[in-house]
Amino acid sequence: MRDDTQVSVLGPAPFRRPFAFTLNHPLAELIALMLLALLLIGAGIGLREPANVDEERFLGIALEMLQHGSWIIPHRAGQIYPDKPPLFMWVVAFLVRATGSPKVALFLPALVAGAVATGCLYDLGRRLWNRRTGVAAALLFLACFQTYNVLRAGQLDGLLCLWIALGMYGLVRHLMAGPAWGWYYVACAAMGFGVITKVIGFLPLFMLLPYAWAVRKDWHGLAPVPRDPWRWALGLAVMLGAVAVWAAPLAATVLLQGDAESLAYVRDVTLHQTAERYTNAWMHREPAWYFVANVIPEVWLPLVLGLPWLVPAWRQQLARRDGRLLVLLGWTLLIVLFFSLSTGKRKLYIFPALMGAVLAVAPLVPWLLRRWFSGRPRALRIFRGIAASWFVAWFVAGFVEPLREGPNPHQDVMRSAAELTGGAELLLVDWREGHWLFARQPIVHFGFQSRAGVGEAARWLRSHPDAYALVPARELARCFIPDKARRAGSTSRAEWYVVAADADNGQCRSDLKPREFRFAWQAPL
């Protein structure tokens, strides 16, 4: 539904061009805003290194897929990785092959997602209200802290943003500017791909709840979508078809192999990491008010600064039965509520809700500017200067942050370990993904987060006298003579030492015989 007048709460709009960004044609505005997103989010992309465990893990899995073909059941250093579906790792692997640069490929999915999300927000704002609203929605999205926190990281939440944005776009086109069954099916396909990226890819479906209520109560601004059960059901089939891109070969693999590891993987990825993690999380446990009190005031800046004016305006629009606002705000609140009810919480979980929030705020931007700056042209010029400086700062930060962080310390540790051992087999103790990703020699481990530790390392070295072990300093003296250990370097977690069998102090005996996993990169990073 197109509305070229400002919503009723705004009254006359004296700021006909509240943003200097407004151009003469919608397509030109769309392209310009998407290019701006690429510029801001992609700043410094060639300088960024995998800098945290998530980035190290996903890049490593993608590279292992390319090396060993473990596409259906992903592996981490030769051991099954059961935490997430593989679509993000597939995309990264494809981009590594296409670009030849792993450290660029890792960050490209989020960059593309940011540009697409920006374009979707602009087009929805334009269609639901007017072009000014579309520009405001896109710029508000690009102004927020969380946009850069999520989309400059090499994590699967960046690719998830793409599917959520397309799912939201398709449903809004169908429910508010439709009926548009084609866009509904696009939304369903996007949500299916979102599920095999990160199970919460179904989040746009929450939009149906406030929509159904608003239609029943005859609120305005919504499309009269026909009640064709078979068409609605076809959307579910499309969504399941997208999920089947991975689920079907997974089922075939498990049926053909039938081994305990494959069955355990299916249970982990479908239950343990979803329903069990939602209801009884074993990490990132936070109180129910965490997102509202601790996260949104920080990561949704500068959007939250307008809340003292926005909340009364929203109340007035809802009193006028504006279905557009009800669906967008309702969807945003349902996402926040959904994650607030979970026992495990991370800041990035509520990022999808930001897209609904900016669309709810955008039509009020001209009214806010009029309220704040009417009769004060100098103050308006200062505001525009601050806004422009804010975007310039995000661009500059894209180059400064990678330079400030420097190279990944695991890279130096593993290079030093290879030099100290002459490239011999290296046992990893209490290791993290960075040790595996940057390994320059054959590595051995007892499983990620295994109970086996330095005692088992000492036992293993006795039967492998030509090999070495990489041991954290805090565990070194328990089983080894410190004077015979050689320092390999340090990371944020520990200082690391290389030891050989002759460093054994004879104090450690272990009857535990854990399973051994072996791995070697054909082309080390």
From TrEMBL:
InterPro entries the UniProt entry points to: LipidA_mod_glycosyltrf_83, RgtA/B/C-like
Top-level division of the source organism's lineage: Bacteria
Keywords: Cell membrane, Glycosyltransferase, Membrane, Transferase, Transmembrane, Transmembrane helix
EC number(s) from the headed UniProt entry: 2.4.-.-
Pfam family, one: PMT_2
Region forming the signal peptide: none
Topology class, membrane: Multi-pass membrane protein
Listed transmembrane segments: 27-47, 104-122, 134-151, 158-176, 182-211, 232-256, 288-311, 323-342, 348-369, 381-400
GO molecular function annotations of the record: glycosyltransferase activity
Compartment(s) where it occurs, according to its Swiss-Prot or TrEMBL record: Cell membrane
Keyword Membrane: yes
Annotated Glycosyltransferase RgtA/B/C/D-like domain residues: 83-244
Protein's name in the database: Glycosyltransferase family 39 protein
The organism of origin for this protein: Aromatoleum evansii
